[in-house]
Amino acid sequence: MPAPERFSEQGDLICYSHTGKADKVFMLSSTDYDESTEYEQNFALVSIKYNPGTGTYEAHKSLFMTRGQAFSFGDFGTGLALTPYGNLWMTGSWWYDPISIGVKHVYLAEVNPEAHLLSQFDYGHEKLTFAWASSNEVATDRNGVPVIAGYDQDEEGNNKLFLASDTDHLKIYHYVRPLYQFSIFDPVSPATGNYADSAVDLNYPTAGIPLALVRSYASRFADESGRLGFGWHLNLLDMHIEGNPTGLDKARLVWGDGHAVEYMTSGKETEAGSTTVHFTPLGLQDSNFVLSGHQDEDGIYFELYNKKLDRTVIFAQATGSHWYPTSMFKGQEKEAPGAFPLNFTYGDSEITVEDMASGRSINFTLDDEGRVTQAQGSAGETVRYQYDANGNLAQVTLPDGSSIQYSYDSSHRLTMIKQGEATLLQNTYDEKGRVIQQKDANNQVTTFAYNEEDLTTTVTSPDGLVTTYSYDRHYRLTSVTDGAGHQKTFTYDDLGRLVRLTQPDGSTISYTYDYDGHLTSKTDASGHTTTYTYDDEGHLTSVQRPGGETISFGYTDGLFSSWTNPLGGTYALSYNDLDRLSSLTDPLGGTVNYSYDDQGLIHEKTGRDGKTVTYTRDAAGRVMQKTINSGAKTVTYSFDALGRVTSVSGPMGTVAYTYNSRGVKATETGVFGKTVTYTYDGTRLHSIAAGDFSITTQRDGAGRPLRVTDSFGHTLTCTYDALKRLSSISGPAGVEVSYHYGASGLLDTITYRRGGTAFRTITITRGPGGRIEAVDDEGAPALALSIPSLELSFNQMDEIQGATYDPSGRLLSHGGRALTYDLDGRLSSSTKGGHQSLFSYDPVGRRVTIEEDGVERRIVYAGATPIMELDASNHPTRYFLFGPGMSLVLSGSGELQYILLSDFRKNILAALDAEGTIVSQRLYSPYGLVLSEDGPWPVPFGFLGEAGIYTEATGLVLTRARAYDPETGRFLTPDPKRPTPELPESFNRYMYAYGNPVNLTDTSGLSPFDRPPLWLIPYLNVLPTLHPTNTLNAVALPPMSSFGSDFSLSLAESYVADATPIYSDRASDTGGGNPQLAPDPTGSDGLLANFDTIASSAGESEPPPGDPVAAAPGTGYVAGISSVPIIAVI
């Protein structure tokens, strides 16, 4: 296509109208330009279209916008045809990247008075520059104001489009490419090469706005000095509004992480000496935010209101042309203290931010440059900040006295992070400030390359594998190709929304959207479609699965208030005056009630069975004690100066933790007095030790386990193929498990050998998208039990008809089995066929004793993984070393007893003795039913491996959180996590693996999404949520704003196929549905999990909902303390 004859290319905006799509669109500005803020009150869009008949570009459409209204929208010739068609609507989804500072794209829709769509504009901008021009062609707008439009030439002879009003001067905006499809990437943005870092230095629980001190760094802000020096921002103190100190004609909102949004006036109200001005963002921003300015005899202040969260920030502290927050509160019309506001008090050298309900506060001390030198919490915790001679933040000293050091180059870009003597990270930048090399704490180097538009083109991992990225002319990611040549491609509609994802095997997943950009359907690789509907406010109101099952959702005043399951059961939620959940009522009338203390924090929960759980807190709002039924059971918690859990005590005893200088767990002492010690090589776990037993891991340069050896000399050895995938694991007696991958890069064969001879082979047949269609298990024991077809029926709460349940929905009796539960709702006994099994738990919820036929076994854990079994006298009787496909069981004296071999679902298939002789083999149904067994099973693990303790007497699989019955394919108790509309499958609270055990597993008893499979990462739909340190392979599918769920949909979209039924309880054992992805056979829960993250959890993988105390993985912090959003106040 030839270059335009009359117009120079100044932009890449796209105009859509009833006459077709424009080839080029130019954005121009007119009056009231303020160079200090780059603020423009009026602007215009002019488009041109290529005419293939004449071979030239022709005028297409133009639009002049002022104060939020479209004054002109018509054909563009030598002048503007001006007609008042109506208002310009800003619609669709939008993305703003606070790290790379860019609106990715904006939808503008112009409608006539009857609301019929006339035209649409899709544009994005990073920053705007300007030039001068003039013209003598005149037209008028609908108010008769002269408008000059036309074209001219600049000094270089280039043609310029322009629009001017009341002046012959014109600023023309040169459009800069949109930063498309990327949100916040950690740690290097693929859109710009910007490096980002963040940390939570202080955090106090509150009932309203979070009182959290979050500091964030972005190398893109390296030349800007804030409260923490160059490049850094504080969420509470750096948020402000910039405007005109003498009037309300402009506003620029700067968020706490440094990114800014420009606003233009859109309306004015004057009454009794006061003026209120309403603002509209320049370019589409989140419509949930409403900005207004007020001017009266006392001066100017601004109000920012979040409609979705019903939160307001008042900016009234004026310093020159800047306004800073004075209060933030929940409920636009509520008054303190019931509204739980944060209140800001400013002094000459200090600022105090206080939560008015709890009295908790953070006091900031400032130096002469206005930088923070100290932040002290109301409980006495103090964080200190030091700066180098160039004004950079050089050191942060935490409340426990430990410190973190930062180094920078001459441009204030962060080059090194150290903690003590350890170097955690090193960055190297190019001349444009992009990160081109990054070295981690283990000296592993990742390199980045970029194109002329600053978009990432290649990322080379420490292994030398190169991932390649390509983009279209609108800077949207169009393909990702991994080091093995497997490619995913992305196709977009005219509005830039992802409509098709093509996977490496050629299969596709497609998406459709409504006018507002909400996802309306998703069709998986097998052609199964899930549909979504919404109300006028954009709330998800129903989800219909391919089989026709529908779940619907209701809302009251914007709050999620009810759901109706496919069985017709309706659950209702109610809230108190401050929008805190006060009750949950089930279809049969059972109710769970919640009450709150004077600080607005949960104080007591009363279950459907009348059981009460009461929480007692310290001055910092942390739970110090949990009491059940007025003292029938009490659990107490202790914390160190950094707020990390140091001990949890209950009826079974105490679990205690210590931490090393890097803040990761160093020791863990359980209720039986056994201490597990963790040592690290850099940031990688090197060994664990408990008494005479230890496990040591030797790694290659990329950190992959090569050799795992126990203290008694037994070794597991791993090898990898050229693409760095696990190729084999070998152990004692010549036993080996090998893995083969197909053309798509997915696992297709597992071979088990002893003495070099194969005795069992699993072959996986995959369909579109990598879903498993068939599994052939050659060498498995002959089928001894046919898969039963259960005829189960259910009530409105999804309970089995004919079974007995307690008021909380826990199964009490069914199929000849009687069950009881402890005060925490965990299985305490199972009686079947005259055999009784008893279970007890430590204070952090781990199952630590099992008693059967009068014999008690005790279990010692490293995190959530069992490593040792004791007798009733606490003498070791067995040790366990778990790997991805092979595990070892040792006697109490360290002799090898059994070699266990497992499949890609973690199920243990075979037990061999120390000589490599087969003792017993098993064949399981997808739901875990033992279909055949050719010898007595010698170990307490089977289905789900070490994550599912199995007892012959009960026939149950005891996962980490709940007991599971393979006969029914259901858990015995409902999922303790509250379901959400973003994950419809969560509303069937008994179902195992979302009714899809062929492709999903649930080793925690809480979710089939325990960890993203490491070897499947290139094929996941959404990675930012699942694997935040490796997000370059990701595209956000679909827009998370479709569900208004703050990205929570991404987890579901990564794994759950559309054919997975919402309410498919096991009536057959076919696996039900056609998911896209398979579980990880090679190590996500194997060596990398057992020996890298084994120290990361203080107990269960997730805390029970409503229980505010549980250690966050790897930190020792109370749940939620390490996940405060960067913009925590709004």
UniProtKB/TrEMBL annotation:
Q: Which CDD domains match?
A: Bacuni_01323_like
* Domain Teneurin-like YD-shell as annotated: residue spans: 467-555, 570-759, 792-998
Q: Where is the DUF6531 domain?
A: 186-263
Q: Per the record's keyword annotation, is Repeat included, yes or no?
A: yes
* Stretches for region Disordered: 1066-1085
What Gene3D superfamilies does its record include?
RHS repeat-associated core
Q: Which UniProt keywords apply?
A: Repeat
Please give the NCBIfam families that the UniProt record associates with this protein. Answer: Rhs_assc_core, YD_repeat_2x
Instruction: Supply the name of the protein.
Output: RHS repeat protein
